[in-house]
Amino acid sequence: MNLHALRLFHVIASCGSVTRASELLNISQPAITAQIKKFEKELLLSLLKPQGRGIALTDAGEEIAQLAKRLFAVEQQIEQFAQHYREGTNGSVRLAATYLPAHFLIPTWIAKFKQQFEQVEMIITTTNSNDALQQLLNVDVDIAIYGGIPEEYPDTIQTEELFQDELWFVVAPNHRYANQQVSLARMMKEPFVMREEGSSTRERLLSLCRTYNSSTPTISLQFNGLHEAITAVIAGYGANFVSSLVVREYVERGELCRVYVEGIHLKNTIAICTRKNEPLSASSLNFIQMIRQNPFRK
């Protein structure tokens, strides 16, 4: 089917006049008439009929005019969608995040983002550090928000640091080391409540022990979430090694206390991870730009 001819017919049917269609399209009347006659031969249907000094639609022309109206309305929708997608006002953002940013940063970021880009779909997976990077490598997500950049990561991953916060040792207020300064060796003799294997903070703790040639702690309780681990420590069991972003308010309220380990001052990096040399969608770029403007430092 000649879609150009169908478009000419659609304009004629919409304005009710070949003369008016000629003016709107800036095409001569004879050229339009020739195209319509050729189109009628292609369809083996008569679409227009004389009516006084003008023309009218045949019954077949009425039906095709309605179908053409729907077709070109969809075309307009496609053009609008493409424009919105290019601008990032439509589309989706697939995001994997480690527990720290997922619980303490991303809800605020998404709320700000959706106020401006309401039609963009946000698909968020909360997982541990290893899995977040693996999902990014597997192209299951567009962006990974990472709390605690690993010592080594694939060359195909690009990272952008947002900010850093401190890593703290914390215990319950009635613990003998609460608000005390102790050696790393003594601290490692305490039972620890930690996240599951694959957690970046857990790996940082074990790496710390290797660096200082200290014995590794006994992880007596293990949870698949930050909240559960912190709650267990607040209840009075063991110690935790965790981002200050997570526990600062608990410490300020007196529900947890810091332990100051001699010579240990570690930072935790919050970063955006993407795949190198791979263009992001406009919606993903808009989300990253919003994060840069609102990184939220505690």
UniProtKB/TrEMBL annotation:
InterPro entries membership: LysR_HTH_N (IPR000847), LysR_subst-bd (IPR005119), WH-like_DNA-bd_sf (IPR036388), WH_DNA-bd_sf (IPR036390)
Spans through the membrane: none
Keywords of the record: DNA-binding, Transcription, Transcription regulation
Signal peptide interval: none
Domain HTH lysR-type residues, every copy: 1-58
Entry-linked Pfam families: HTH_1, LysR_substrate
Family indicated by similarity: Belongs to the LysR transcriptional regulatory family.
Listed name of the protein: LysR family transcriptional regulator
